[in-house]
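Worked example 3 (structure in, sequence out).
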């Protein structure tokens, strides 16, 4: 049984390497495909132009008449035909090259499809090998169990960071609506100050009411984001949570009373500035979280590779 597993693992490792090579080749060919298609289109336009020039000098046209009068019409026809032939050759070569490229891509795509489940097969046989090692080797078993526990902890942290990122992105999405309503309110406010009357005043306050409702939603999302950051518990992010919590009081600032039209406009500007600051802080925090997530993923893959290496060489 163990010999069969070992043979399968060796074979699957070769297939995994081949799959990575095929993916790289496809990426290169698809990149070249776009350039070659543009080249073929350009050469086709030149070919069509040269064919048109031949018909023009051979047929009845003012240019053909000029050549006839000069006595060099046959020479010009030969010249245009040579240019048309050269353009046709270049175009045909580009078309053939493009067809060959399509065939290569199709062939590699089929091969990649055939290798589609090789990772799953490798994981299956590797898990069988790991189970075998854990059953028959105490020394390797202890190390594998330690590393498996490490992988589990890393996966848990990874999920917590992903949830924190989602919470932060929700904050940003909710601020978009608030900013939109504040901008509309400011526009109506300017109209109101220029004598827009009751209609502009009502529209302004309608937008402000909508913005205020959105602010409540943003604050709720910020509180959720702050909670998710606590769950992450990353040492270098100790100040991030403080910065976010420092923004949670902006709703109280926003709903203070407005006394004059100018005060309303100033308050709208200050509110948009405050929300923009919040978005910037959240975006910076999300960037830190993404970096941590990538680092965790790398560490998890390296730990998993250690387990597989122990099992593979047993």
């Amino acid at each position: 049984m163990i010999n069969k597993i070992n043979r399968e693992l060796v074979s699957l490792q070769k297939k995994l390497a081949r799959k990575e090579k095929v993916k790289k080749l496809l990426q290169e060919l698809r990149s070249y495909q776009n350039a070659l298609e543009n080249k073929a289109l350009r050469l086709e336009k030149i070919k069509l132009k040269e064919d048109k020039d031949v018909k023009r000098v051979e047929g009845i046209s003012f240019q053909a008449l000029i050549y006839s009068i000069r006595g060099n019409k046959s020479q010009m026809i030969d010249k245009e035909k040579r240019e048309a032939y050269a353009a046709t050759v270049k175009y045909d070569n580009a078309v053939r090259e493009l067809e060959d490229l399509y065939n290569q891509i199709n062939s590699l795509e089929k091969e990649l499809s055939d290798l589609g489940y090789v990772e799953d097969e490798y994981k299956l046989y590797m898990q069988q090998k790991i189970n075998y090692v854990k059953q028959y080797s105490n020394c390797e078993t202890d190390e594998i169990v330690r590393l498996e526990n490490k992988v589990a902890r890393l996966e848990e942290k990874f999920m917590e960071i992903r949830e924190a990122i989602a919470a932060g992105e929700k904050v940003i999405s909710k601020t978009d609506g608030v900013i939109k309503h504040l901008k509309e309110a400011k526009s109506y406010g300017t109209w109101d100050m220029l004598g827009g009357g009751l209609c502009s005043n009502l529209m302004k306050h309608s937008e402000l009411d909508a913005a205020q409702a959105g602010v409540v939603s943003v604050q709720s999302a910020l509180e959720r984001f702050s909670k998710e950051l606590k769950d992450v518990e990353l040492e270098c992010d100790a100040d991030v949570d403080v910065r976010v919590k420092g923004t949670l009081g902006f709703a109280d600032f926003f709903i203070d009373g407005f006394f004059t039209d100018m005060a309303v406009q100033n308050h709208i500007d200050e509110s948009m500035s405050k929300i923009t600051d919040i978005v910037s802080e959240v975006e910076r925090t999300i960037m830190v979280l993404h970096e941590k997530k990538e680092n965790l993923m790398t560490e998890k893959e390296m730990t998993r590779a250690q387990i597989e290496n122990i099992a593979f060489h047993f």
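Notes: Residues 250 and 274 are 7 Å apart (CA to CA). Residues 2-136 form one domain.
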